[in-house]
Each structure stands twice: as structure tokens, then as C-alpha cells.
């Protein structure tokens, strides 16, 4: 590579939970630079999760973190051209990429849901992912199945 690698900028923790992971999620959720609206959507979604969770001892933030870890993929397939043919080669994923993929999938499939507001959609997707169901979790299992199916090509490392 010709250029130096860009250094990671430190993220400020969010005001309510004092967690950098929440800020990272809100940054992915944000549209057109409207961060305060993104924070409101996220906090409203966690309030809905808090109301729907029932009597178990976990907080809504812990449920959200469980949902994030349930959606996190461990392997992905990458395309590589070898001898005129394209092969899908399974590769392990870096830790920061795992987290960003999980966040993006949660937000994408929450947007695709049918509900009144984005906060309700996000809350429904978080609850589903924490129970290991829903579209975001299905995306993870599909990714893992694809990697498993192409395991024979894993010796073609990059």
C-alpha cells in the first residue's frame, strides 16, 4: 500500500449509558448528520424493549448487546479469481468488522420491518435477534452456511 493507514478516531461514549458501542451503533443509524434524532430513536427502541421484556433480570442494554452478539458473523466468503474461475473462499472476519456488520444488518432489517416508527421496528428486530430469530439472525446463518458450503476452497487463501 502506498498510503499510510488512517488512524482510528476515538469515539465519545453516549450520554445515557456511557458506552462507546452505543455511539457506534447510533452513528450507523444516523441519517443526514442528524445524530440527536438517531439517539432518540435508539433510546426509544430500548424503552420499548424494556417494556416488552417481561420479568427476566436483563436490562434492555444487555438484551441489545445479546442481539448484537447473536447477529455477529464469524466467517464470510470472499470472491477470488483463480485460473479463469471465480471461487467463493471462506475467510475469518476481524473483530471490528464483525461488530460493524452486525450493526448494519440489525439496522437494515429493522428498516425493512412493518411497524409504525423506526424505534418500534428497531425494538422488534432487537428482541427477535436476542431470541436468535428474525431477518438479521437469518442473514448470519446464511453467511455461515455459504462459508460451510465452500469450505473445500479454503486452501485458496489470499
From TrEMBL:
Pfam annotation, one family: Ribosomal_S7
One GO-annotated biological process of the protein: translation
Entry annotated with the keyword tRNA-binding: yes
UniProtKB keywords: Ribonucleoprotein, Ribosomal protein, RNA-binding, rRNA-binding, tRNA-binding
UniProt domain Small ribosomal subunit protein uS7: residue ranges: 1-151
Record GO cellular component, one term: small ribosomal subunit
Family annotation (InterPro entries): Ribosomal_uS7, Ribosomal_uS7_bac/org-type, Ribosomal_uS7_CS, Ribosomal_uS7_dom, Ribosomal_uS7_dom_sf
Source organism, top-level taxon: Bacteria
Keyword flag RNA-binding: yes
A GO molecular-function descriptor: tRNA binding
Record's subunit section: Part of the 30S ribosomal subunit. Contacts proteins S9 and S11.
Family of this protein: Belongs to the universal ribosomal protein uS7 family.
Function description: One of the primary rRNA binding proteins, it binds directly to 16S rRNA where it nucleates assembly of the head domain of the 30S subunit. Is located at the subunit interface close to the decoding center, probably blocks exit of the E-site tRNA.
Name of the molecule in the record: Small ribosomal subunit protein uS7
Amino acid at each position: 500500500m502506498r498510503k499510510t493507514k488512517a488512524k482510528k478516531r476515538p469515539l465519545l461514549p453516549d450520554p445515557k449509558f456511557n458506552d462507546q458501542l452505543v455511539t457506534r451503533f447510533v452513528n450507523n443509524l444516523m441519517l443526514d448528520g442528524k445524530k440527536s434524532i438517531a439517539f432518540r430513536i435508539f433510546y426509544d427502541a430500548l424503552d420499548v424493549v424494556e417494556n416488552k421484556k417481561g420479568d427476566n433480570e436483563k436490562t434492555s442494554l444487555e438484551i441489545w448487546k445479546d442481539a448484537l452478539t447473536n447477529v455477529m458473523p464469524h466467517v464470510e466468503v470472499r470472491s477470488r479469481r483463480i485460473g479463469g474461475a471465480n471461487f467463493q473462499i471462506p475467510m475469518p472476519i476481524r473483530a471490528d468488522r464483525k461488530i460493524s456488520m452486525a450493526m448494519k444488518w440489525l439496522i437494515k432489517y429493522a428498516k425493512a420491518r412493518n411497524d409504525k416508527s423506526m424505534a418500534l421496528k428497531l425494538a422488534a428486530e432487537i428482541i427477535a435477534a436476542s431470541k436468535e430469530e428474525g431477518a438479521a439472525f437469518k442473514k448470519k446463518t446464511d453467511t455461515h452456511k455459504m462459508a460451510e458450503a465452500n469450505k473445500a476452497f479454503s486452501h485458496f487463501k489470499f
